[in-house]
Amino acid sequence: MSPDPASYPDDLKYTAEHEWVRQQDGSVRVGITSYAQEALGDIVYVQLPEAGSAVEAGSAVGELESTKSVSDLYAPISGTVVASNDALDQTPELINSDPYGEGWLLEIEPAEAAAVDTLLDAATYRSQVESA
Amino acid sequence: MSDDLLHSPLHDRHQALGAKFAEFGGWSMPLEYAGGGVLKEHAAVREGVGIFDVSHLGNARVTGPGAAAFVNACLSNDLGKIGPGKAQYTLCCDDATGGVVDDLIAYLYGEDDVFLIPNAANTAEVVRRLAAAAPDGVEVVNLHTDYAILAVQGTKSDEVLDAVGLPTGHEYMSFVDADLDGASVVVCRTGYTGERGYEIVVPAADAAPVWDRLMAAGEPHDIRACGLGARDTLRTEMGYPLHGQDISLEISPVQARLGWAIGWKKETFWGAGPLRAEKEVGAARLLRGLRASGRGIPRAQMEVLGPDGAVVGEVTSGTFSPTLRQGVALALIDRAVGDGDQVTIDVRGRSEAFDVVKPPFVQPGVREA
Prior knowledge:
The complex is a heterodimer of chains A (about 130) and B (about 375). By secondary structure, chain A is α+β, with helices and mostly antiparallel strands. In chain A, about 20% of the residues lie in helices and about 30% in strands. In chain A, the strands form two sheets. Chain A has a six-stranded antiparallel beta sheet. In chain A, strands 4-6-7 form a three-stranded antiparallel beta sheet, with no helix packed on it. By secondary structure, chain B is an alpha+beta fold. Chain B has three domains: about 5-60 and about 145-235, Gyrase A, domain 2, CATH 3.30.1360.120; about 60-140, Aminomethyltransferase beta-barrel domains (Alpha-Beta Plaits, 2-Layer Sandwich); about 240-355, Elongation Factor Tu (Ef-tu), domain 3 (Beta Barrel). Chain B is built from eight helices and 20 strands. In chain B, the strands form four sheets. Chain B has a six-stranded mixed beta sheet with strand order 11-12-13-10-4-14, sandwiched between helices. The interface of A and B includes residues 1, 44 and 66 of A.
């Protein structure tokens, strides 16, 4: 079953590029929102940065390819990639079916711990999506 | 979405099914449906049955004494090879250059009556060219919005048509007139998916009840409404060309290896001069299939490179094949490159390896008895 495309959990932070960020111990987990997966359509291939890569907020660090198009994945914050979701190599459809859970993309150790606080909260992101 | 776009008579059915719409040749048509998506819709056709609204396709009728002979002197394929009740894939070429104005299906009713199904964006131009050339007494009428076309495609398509009492099992590329609840329909054993299936031409006013009957009859077979996104992945797996990408005014049928759709032995057809000349010397580039060795997904307009890194061609259609779970493409490639060779495509900065292969990429089931 497809997830509700208008679901934006309150405990996550968001970016204007339709990514979500979850604060964890020492790192943040990153994925794309239910709105983004719905807009992209069936995702068939994911290109993610290797663990250890340094990434800069706003720069393209990977690609999400659907049956019809390809989209860049942007780093929501600066830091070092500590993990990427290997399951997506064989089952990229997890991003469509469970964008906030099994379909996560990356874990980043932030260069500055406070960077996450500058991202959008759920209400702000929702209003941006709904006015788009 | 612009209100200038034409809508299918089934538009409200698609809205009710949560379709995402996209523009195709001036029409707003379903790209994919809620709860479906390209992969599920593609699989429905390959493994079961799907129904497509392709009402954006054009309709035109050529009638009058010698209508078939007239069409045969214009369009590329040889109508003399088929009899009444049969359909034929053919091309409308530019007389001066041999480039492709459109590819279409011609339905031969009789020597005085031919029905044509051109592409949405090209219907007006095909009709204009035919009407301008038509002799006295032969009439060419554009019926674009008079008919809807529903394509029921997949291994279980016979079951769905049988359940509503429509004829099935006729030969590939043949058609039968029929009646469904008072609607006069034409059931053609044709399609653009590579699977067994039917295209049903329905008067526009009857389209919605016919769609409803087919959807209800297909329910036990898990029929799925399929959008034009899946239609594109299905046709690409077959290597079927799409006008505007793999064939065009700039890409001739000789280059696209559609010589089988040209009646070379006919006295004449539009573009006969330039096409015969090109066939004689051999096309400089040919449309070939490419299959990824790795994970790369090719897209139209990407460059194809030879072993030494020189550009040897360009992708005209590229996608992820849901059946193979790999990237596949049609590409126009220098004739020195042949099937079995290896090439690379620059996929956004990554050099991805591809094998040159002869389409189809997936075994078709269209002709199965």
